[in-house]
Fold these 2 entries.
Entry 1:
Amino acid sequence: MGYLYEAMDRAKKHLKKRNPKAYRKWWVIIDKRWEMTLHHNLHAAGYFFNPRFQYKDNVHNDGEVMRGTMNVITRLAKTMNERLDAIAEVERYRMKLGIYR
């Protein structure tokens, strides 16, 4: 699932590079389709938790990715303690601590 985020980013950058004057109209179409049919919290979480993307230099952990990831955690973790534990684990993952080294 996380590969979809990376593919969309690459496609948009490619369009901008190939046609700097007209890329915006294509971005509008892509973004509209993305929001209507392709964007889901699980895609965001899949991208976030994929080590290939998480630990590269130009990671795309913007608000959209983090919101989607937190929405998945909130849905799966039923109690506040479970949510807090999951969020703490996410931070350990991001920082490459413990088992994530």
Note: The mean pLDDT is 88.
Entry 2:
Amino acid sequence: MRPHKIHKLSARYGRTIFAVDVEADLRVVFYIEGDLVVTVDIGAHGIYRG
């Protein structure tokens, strides 16, 4: 898995937001707070397009 930064959501949340492809049609959007990974959303590619 190779996470990538989502610039639009990072600007909106005021922190670095990442997405990773779990399967071809399944993405997880998250950020890291200390040693904790916080999930923002899980779904298809459109979850972080707005």
Note: The chain has a mean pLDDT of 86.
